[in-house]
Amino acid sequence: MSDSTAQLPPAPAARVPHAGGTSWRARTREGRFALALLAPSIIVVFGIVVYPILRTLYTSLFAVDTPFPGHFPWVGLDNYKYALQQSDFWSAVLRTAYFTFVSTGFELVFGMGIALLLYAPLKGRWVFRTIVVLPWALPTIVNGAMWRYFFNAQYGVVNAALTQLGITTSYHAFLSSPFAALNIVVWADVWKNTSLVAFFLLAGLTTIPKDLYEAARVDGYGRWGSFVHITLPLLRPVIVVVLVLRTIEAFKVFDIIYVMTGGGPANGTQSIAFYTYQRAFSDEFFGYGAALAYLIVVFIMVLAIVYIRLLRSENYGMA
Amino acid sequence: MRDSLRYRIFIHVAAVVVSLIILAPFAWLAIASLSSQADLLKIPLSWIPSNLSFSRYSQIFTSSSGTIFANFRASLVNSAIVATATVAISISVGIFGAYAFARLRFRGQRASLLLFLSTYMVPPIALVIPLYLIMVRLHLLNTRIGLIIVYCTFATPFVLWIMGNYFETIPRELEDAARIDGCSRIGALFRVVLPLARPGLLSTMLFAFLIAWDEFLYALIFTSTTAAKTIPVAIAEFTGRYTTDFGLQAAGGILAAVPPVLIAVIFQRYIVGGLASGAVKG
After folding, report:
1. pLDDT at A139
2. Partner of A44 at 20 to 30 A CA spacing, among A52, A140, A147, B2?
3. Based on the number of CB atoms within 10 Å of its own CB, is A21 exposed (0-12), middle (13-18) or buried (19 or more)?
């Protein structure tokens, strides 16, 4: 068998530019061509965001109290120091961390279950797949408004269902209790975003060769055994991608809180992005708001680096 | 080997339970949008409305401008235009960049891809104030074009990422053959690579559309009238102002959900294929 392959013409890899023998000139030519192809994307993305990114960094070093340009006292890193000394800030960070880890955790677990179901030999699989896609397509603001209505203290269906089923005896103002409200926001987020996670994991499942499962069955593994020994390890890269995406998204959470609770009650659902929004737009502490925004970036970057390390240790990622 | 009966019953029951958890909220939203206000405010709630009426929908579609109903209609149109334009621009711009990441080897390749993706880590709240000032200066405040420009900045990195990975799965040999037949690189991209990348392209378009349709904070800060206000802003404002008009909240919500839901349902068979070769590779 090795004889026949030896007689085949050289594999295309020999002609692939990044193979060893490529000349410096060819590389430069490729570089120029790449730059030309990337130029539109660079203009569309960085042409717009570079100035705001730098401007916000600059603003964070001044005591700015209006959105409009002017001369403001230089305060150096005081805005950052001030933030790190505020208990409000740290409670917002903790709340955001709680929201992020609890919602991402549930989304992963439920998403895995749904992905396995979508992959299983279901009758009417197409119908099920169509149903699963629905919450993902529902706009976040509509989702938030919907659950706020469902958990309404007087007219919400949750209260109506719980009392009529005899589970509770009276109506509860769920969204008036800080910790309950936070968990309801988590629930609304999980209900919507589990779909997306399920589709990512399903996409990962389809890339696992079926004969591995056959082999596992021959070796005497049951369903659980092959899930633990084949599915989970092979899905790890996908799980990491989903984890990164959902964590970044959750850490920036703003929309659903804006529409469901407005950060209340008693700041019980005030995420770090929402805290920043309030300091910048309600209090007009724009310098402080800018510093807070950069602290969010730092938190997200730390999380992202941890995850990218995870990716690297798997030796996985884009070429 | 056949699956056991118990297993088959289990997966079907589980699928039905999941479907109910997903569909019940949608169903109640639809019922609420058709119920009278009196029915919705009844305590204890009666689950079966006394009468159903499409009046809220017909008002949204026919009311003369200036009313809440007409504002909903205008913001639906705005959202449709903004999301469609964002998809069109970010795809046509991003395809070339994605091709460069997938097929060319150049210095700083990995770093520049990471730079594009790192814009995703910056929360909109960090950029919104300086962007606002730019919009003022360029007279783009409260315009759809202003929103489209901003939305393309986060839709394009997505296109680069998913399409870049997808292009890598398309065998180079096909492209090489086209080039031997006299195609230029760009010619081969359009005649050979893109047609084969259709599932990836369609799922990327779906993603970009949903991202643009869903965006809230920039639209909240940059738009103020029906000239550019998008549907998430209209809904947030409405639910904040008329907190107990659940019927109209529901009708507005359903209308806001119909375009993305329809598109997602039509395109859903491409999602898995598009992600399987695109996003899940890392």
Report:
1. 96
2. A140
3. exposed
Residues of A in contact with B116 (CB under 8 A): 41, 45
Where do you find CATH 1.10.3720.10 in chain B?
A: 55-281
- Of the pLDDT bands very low, low, confident and very high (cuts 50, 70, 90), residue B24 is very high
Any A CB within 8 A of B247 CB: no
Domain contains A79: no
How close is the nearest chain B Cα to the Cα of A121, in Å? 8
For chain A, which ranges sit under pLDDT 70?
1-24, 311-319
Q: CB within 8 A of A155, min separation 6: which ones? A: A149, B40, B41, B43, B45, B244, B246
Substitution target from A29, A42, A43, A45 for chain B, most B beta carbons within 10 A = A45
DSSP state at residue A11: P
Mean pLDDT for chain B overall:
88
**B window 122-161, beta carbon within 8 A of A:** 122-127, 129-134, 149-150, 152-153, 156-157, 160-161
Is B25's CB within 8 Å of A146's CB?
yes
Report the C-alpha gap between B5 and B123 in whole angstroms. Answer: 49
Which residue type does B197 have? A
Distance from the Cα of B63 to chain A's closest Cα (Å) equals 22
In a domain, A211, yes or no: yes
- Domain with A26, as residue range(s), is 2-59
CB-neighbour burial class of residue A290 (10 A; exposed 0-12, middle 13-18, buried 19+): buried
Check CB contact under 8 Å for B97 and A40: yes
Q: What is the mean pLDDT of residues B221-242?
A: 91
Task: Kindly state the average pLDDT of the residues B47-51.
Answer: 80
CA atoms within 13 A on the CB side of A210: 3
Model pLDDT, residue A129: 93
Q: Are residues A167 and A19 in the same domain?
A: no
CATH class of B55-281: mainly alpha
- Give B 195-224 residues with CB within 8 A of chain A: 210, 213-214, 216-217, 220
